[in-house]
């Protein structure tokens, strides 16, 4: 723990006040599970974000809005989110650390870290937008937020929106890890939608912890469109992911091993999503 250098703890009430309090020696803190472990030594001020009115999760005809201060537990327990795309969010969230961690860890704090995430691949697969404040309110697709490096700039994440599901669609998450309480060696998230004739008309295939945060495998998605949701199609999509997803070696796994995992994770993830689709009567 490195909080001995903290001299000031401020509790702003608005996003604008919180942003104004940031600076070279001030760190925002939400649940604190990460800040407590790795707060920079140069930081002398903590800007507590938990008094900001950003904890609500709301559902409307267009989808969901999740405030940055919503805890991972609140997300897992929200009935609408839990049912969305047949349970992909709670399926993933139960794999994030422990119940104690999820009770305090917030969505905003999680996304601001920009590393080691089970949450990001699922949000990419769900076509989520992220919302942030950097002197003005901004929003955009979550994948672009990381690609552009916005998470490394001075900004405050204010929330995430997820579009409503359409048609006969379902999602799934798959995580390879060494022990249950572990960061992923690799993870995958997918969403499938089938048309009235039973052919796939929309697909999202995302691989994470490669160790990049979550990349869509466009070629695998394209290969699935127009065909039936069957094991042959999922095996083919898995082979595409194995061959195309760029993997790197780190202390957890070699790049070669991760490539194999990418193929298996995508195949299993798609099979799980397909098993949740409504069966035509
Ligand atoms: C023991 C342990 C196990 C874990 N296991 C997993 C796992 O299996 N899978 C997984 O995906 N993750 C895992 N994590 C990561 C965990 O999900 C994050 O630590 C947590 O979600 C961070 O949320 P927080 O609210 O506590 O963030 P904080 O610690 O408050 O903040 C994290 C970072 O974000 C900044 N910040 C906070 N809020 C905002 C905001 N609204 N806008 C901008 N910047 C902000 C802070 O300055 C800090 O840099 C694990 C963490 C721990 C400690």
Structural summary, described in words:
- It is a single chain.
- The chain has 281 residues and is of the alpha+beta class.
- It folds into 3 domains: 8-48, no CATH class; 57-163, Uridine Diphospho-n-acetylenolpyruvylglucosamine Reductase, domain 3; 168-275, Enolase-like, domain 1, CATH 3.30.390.
- The chain has helices spanning 15-21, 35-38, 72-77, 79-83, 88-93, 99-104, 107-113, 119-125, 142-147, 218-224, 231-244, 255-275, and strands at residues 8-10, 26-29, 45-48, 57-60, 63-67, 129-133, 137-141, 156-163, 168-176, 186-194, 200-208, 215-216.
- The strands form 3 sheets. Strands 4-5-8-6-7 form a 5-stranded antiparallel β-sheet, with helices on both faces.
- It is globular, with a radius of gyration of 19 Å.
- The model has no long low-confidence stretch (mean pLDDT 95).
- The structure holds flavin-adenine dinucleotide.
- Residues 27-35, 49, 68, 95-97, 101, 105-106, 108-110, 112-113, 116-119, 156-157, 183 line the site of flavin-adenine dinucleotide.
């Amino acid at each position: 723990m490195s909080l001995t250098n903290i001299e000031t703890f401020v509790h702003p009430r608005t996003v604008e006040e919180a942003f104004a309090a940031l600076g070279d020696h001030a760190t925002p803190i939400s649940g604190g599970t990460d800040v407590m472990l790795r707060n920079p030594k140069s930081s002398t001020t903590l800007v507590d974000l938990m008094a900001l009115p950003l904890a609500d999760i709301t559902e409307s005809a267009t989808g969901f809005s999740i405030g940055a201060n919503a805890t991972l537990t609140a997300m897992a327990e929200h009935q609408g989110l839990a049912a969305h795309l047949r349970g992909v969010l709670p399926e993933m969230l139960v794999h994030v650390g422990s119940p104690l961690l999820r009770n305090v860890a917030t969505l905003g704090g999680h996304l601001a870290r920009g590393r080691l995430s089970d949450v990001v691949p699922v949000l990419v697969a769900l076509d989520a937008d992220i919302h942030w404040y950097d002197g003005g309110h901004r929003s955009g697709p979550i994948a672009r937020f990381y690609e552009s490096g916005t998470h490394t700039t001075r900004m405050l994440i204010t929330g995430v929106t997820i579009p409503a599901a359409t048609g006969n669609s379902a999602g799934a998450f798959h995580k390879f890890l060494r022990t249950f309480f572990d960061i992923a060696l690799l993870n995958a998230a997918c969403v499938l939608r089938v048309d009235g004739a039973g052919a796939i008309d929309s697909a999202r295939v995302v691989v994470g912890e490669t160790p990049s945060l979550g990349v869509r495998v466009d070629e695998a998605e394209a290969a699935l469109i127009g065909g039936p949701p069957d094991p042959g199609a999922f095996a083919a999509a898995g082979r595409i992911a194995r061959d195309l997803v760029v993997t790197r070696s780190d202390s957890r796994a070699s790049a070669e091993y991760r490539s194999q995992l990418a193929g298996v994770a995508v195949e299993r993830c798609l099979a799980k999503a397909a098993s949740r689709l409504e069966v035509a009567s």
